């Protein structure tokens, strides 16, 4: 049986690049030569904190682009051909369980992860989305995180001219900032302790950039918004220290979107009376499969040239993970 | 091979009860002993006007309840057992085509109709929804039209205390009226030329009932709404004569929902300036598969005892169709 | 100068019925002979906890109906006449400050409270809403709390067939339950430790009623919703003990609406990771002036005969407040 | 009494620059030295077609910026000072009539037009909005048309990655295109017969530009959208010839927004069956006063340097109107 390299969650705080069998292309499945797969904080948090119920022994990776190299039986009716450029969803879904039938395939009870940090991805055709024939496979490897941030936009519902702050301009934060810029937000303000990230935010189009370690966030936010607070605040850093202040920055009838995956043990003290006095709301964001076609449409408007910081060969995945944790680059890709 | 009765679209304006083979239960499919299947205006319009692209030679029926009698290979993972009471969607969907992947399975490119006017329904498990073990199968045969009217509610977005008129209190109109009553509508006004239907509407909970042949609809509507017009007007009769007046009855920032399937050749003259002066909008309604679970939840609050007018054996389907066209009964069921 | 009785916030935990001058009817104002004014938990919490920034020395009351007895200069253009039955908003608003100009008059910077627990209300015409000439003034005294609960409906956005739980069936909780019943909710479940209130909820139309002191709320909720949790949970009791469990009862993509005014010092521990895993959201509810016309439209569909528990003369307001705190009656009116 | 120049609707198809008394600054009012006032198609259509019920004898103009020169009695509480830079709404509203009380001041029954094509604007403070002290008064003269196009965005509800076409890239069309670019639209396609306008659209950021006189709009639209049609089509030209084709370009579950003011006598034939098969909807757009603060926030992101084509002194208003009708420049300002 043919072998390939694939990155595994080996044990708590430990990943490995393994040589494994390329899975068989069963009916309904396709085989994809992976081009690029992007690292996501969730990959790291699965390994360090067990988020999303991750257990050692599973392969990792869920943001990838590639090219179809084999079509399984019964996949001919859906418009795919060998050689098509594609991206994948994090999981293949069944379409038949109660969650899928409710329109919530992101919670599919039979979900099968795609294992994107691999030379080949073999998955059900339900997880595969065609991209343009002339697509830059690097650029389109960011479709999946774009999906998640578009989900945030759908749930947050920014209206033109509403003021917006984004806390945390990392890999996903910079993509989310891109979506906010495309959402008609005003006085867009980035919050990040790292100077490079504040610079990146301003360079992408944010109007203000604040340093949470040295700026008085509440005072500056009120100055920027003429005493109103921000209509929308997005917390993308996932740092408990950054969580609570968002509630002080939000305007009357505003919304705080906690986009990040916070540590499972963290409990944020929430003053319901203060929230009530402002009639504010809190939103969290998981994802939705239905957004892939819209994210693919929008990729040309994502500033990927600023967001993709580094491309590293799959074989050096351990280095890539180490580099990721330095959080110097917004997004790191594995070349598979 | 085992045979069963099934109602077919035989030729323009002509249906037949045929004796046909019971389809084979292929992998992924289930076999259902149909209990009740409801007649819908769309069944008739397929035969008389070819709506939804219907061509002679196809079996009819898309609103049904029943009991699972056989589970095909590979259906064991989704929580269904032999003996389960279920309802069906009008079509089984693939979950893999571009429309399904966008979250629009109602426009699935591989849709397979269920053929509900049959003693048995054999269909993909994606089209099957479980209902409570103690469910009244007659009552739950109205799940599918409830889905369509709930779709209308989702798209119309009635808010508590908004005023609402419903034009056409037939089978689907009475179910839509039920949904409007459950939507917080105010001064709910039914419009129908048939006295029995106006009585039904009042009996179900409408506050006013107008006769379009003898009442001055615009004058009466303005009286009922203190000169504002209705925030929502639903046209459910499908009669071109009833279409245009809805635009005169609607309030500033109001919405006219053309729910009915109008004759394909009919073109309504639309004065865009008048619509603009009121900032009004027009909505049409198809359906959405994802609403089945919500419709099943809601069936106990649907006044089916008033809406189901007649139950007729499947073998007498031709009589049922004839009776349907007299439009004396809101809903007619075939006992299969 | 003519005198009238009026209920005042005298000191912490202390109200008084005072004999005060009837305010002068200045230009733009109208004078109303108050008919009925309803007690609200907020009146009590202003006196006991200083909510809404209340300070001793102010008159109380914000839910009232009455009849216009005098029209100030310059009020002739707006369609009001002496003898008109009306209800009032909690405050008159200016229409000119930045909050009003944003469409948020509920946060008007020049708001002037109406002081509804008085024999006469003298207020700006902006706070006055006409009701039908044949209106029952008792029934319509509940327009203002209906406004608040309709605001909750607008913000929560219940969809037909979504499952709903309401925690706390007091005065405002019973009105909110009424609105949920009118919102297409399914498997509507009331939660209250007081047997009379659970009975009231079932009598009004709830399907289930749970006792938080004796039922296992999470277990029962999962049974009622087939393991999904409720799509919407409304917390209306304002009891810190009831706050956190709501987060365990809510479904994937569901919403917890904290409607009640919680004690200003209370901080609820919020696990953001658990909220994220369900993509759930949290909403609070203040109010909106624009909803008065819709609430007036809807009053005929509010079960006021079940909700109004007691009518007590204004002179006995202290007894009424004492009775209120026994929380035996959903709503208590002062006959003014 | 002091005099000023002001542009009047003199007779059908005829405007005049008149020398008139500067109105008295009554209580609640402010006096503004007009800086710039922009021409709008509605000004022209009032004179040529009587839209919005316009009758000869009224002063014109409703898009303007300026500086406060006098504050009337009773305006001190709202935060305005002499010397403040401001913009105005098209009309002052009363805040007390039934439409204002519903939150629809755009339909105020006591609305008083601002007469912006004048050296001075004297109006109620309710019509005045502060802009930043360092604001470019030319740029901010486009706040009012930004409000209208933002209203279109609110009503249309473009979601990130949805495909969008805009028909008609004139003064308001170019501003609307700007808003679409800020709305996360994808494959944004401009449609205009004038080459300069197509160039402008591409220059502003549109991806495609089609010529309705030479391109096959339906064919090209399907190519651009891979056979789906556009999720949103905006008709901004107001030309009856451009109206109907929009319905053919729109996708399943899409929306056609007729933004333009069409000739009052024009009736568009609307095939309800075809609309139903796509579950499409139609929206019109009036305006909303509450959007001024959001439009002011957003002006820095409006490409006014490309949209403002010409600035002409107020005294030459007739030339400006003549030039406007050549439709060579997207927006023409009067320097007042």
TrEMBL record, chains A, B, C, D:
Claim: Zinc is one of the keywords in the record: yes
Gene Ontology molecular function, alphabetical: metal ion binding; oxidoreductase activity
Domain Enoyl reductase (ER): 10-334
A Pfam cross-reference name: ADH_zinc_N
Keywords on record: Metal-binding, Oxidoreductase, Zinc
Origin: domain of life: Bacteria
InterPro entries: ADH-like_C (IPR013149), ADH-like_N (IPR013154), ER (IPR020843), GroES-like_sf (IPR011032), NAD(P)-bd_dom_sf (IPR036291), Zn_alcohol_dh (IPR050129)
UniProt name for this protein: (R,R)-butanediol dehydrogenase / meso-butanediol dehydrogenase / diacetyl reductase
Species this protein is from: Lactonifactor longoviformis DSM 17459
């Amino acid at each position: 049986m043919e072998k390939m390299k694939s990155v595994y969650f080996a044990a708590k705080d430990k990943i490995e690049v393994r040589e494994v069998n390329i899975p068989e292309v069963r009916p309904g499945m396709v085989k994809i030569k992976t081009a690029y797969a992007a690292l996501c904080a969730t990959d790291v948090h699965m390994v360090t904190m067990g988020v999303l119920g991750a257990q050692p022994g599973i392969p990792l990776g869920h943001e990838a682009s590639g090219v179809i190299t084999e079509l399984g039986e019964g996949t001919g009716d859906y418009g795919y051909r060998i050689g098509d450029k594609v991206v994948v969803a994090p999981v293949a879904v069944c379409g038949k369980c109660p969650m899928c039938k409710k329109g919530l395939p992101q919670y599919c009870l039979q979900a099968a992860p795609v294992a994107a940090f691999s030379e080949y991805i073999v998955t059900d055709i339900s997880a595969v989305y065609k991209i343009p024939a002339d697509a830059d496979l690097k650029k389109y490897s960011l479709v999946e995180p774009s999906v998640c941030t578009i989900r945030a936009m759908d749930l947050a519902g920014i209206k033109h001219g509403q003021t917006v702050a984004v806390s945390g301009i990392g890999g996903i934060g910079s993509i989310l900032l891109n979506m906010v810029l495309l959402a008609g937000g005003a006085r867009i303000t980035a919050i990040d302790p790292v100077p490079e990230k504040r610079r990146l935010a301003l360079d992408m189009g944010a109007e203000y950039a604040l340093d949470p370690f040295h700026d008085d966030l509440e005072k500056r936010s009120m100055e920027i918004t003429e005493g109103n607070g921000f209509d929308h605040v997005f917390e993308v850093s996932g740092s408990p220290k950054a969580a609570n202040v968002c509630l002080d920055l939000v305007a009357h009838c505003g919304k705080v979107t906690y986009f990040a995956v916070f540590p499972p043990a963290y409990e944020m003290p929430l003053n319901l009376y203060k929230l009530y006095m402002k009639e504010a709301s809190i939103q969290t964001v998981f994802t939705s499969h239905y957004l892939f076609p819209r994210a693919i449409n929008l990729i040309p408007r994502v500033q990927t040239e600023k967001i993709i910081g580094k491309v590293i060969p799959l074989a050096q995945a351990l280095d890539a993970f180490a580099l990721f944790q330095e959080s110097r680059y917004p997004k790191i890709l594995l070349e598979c």
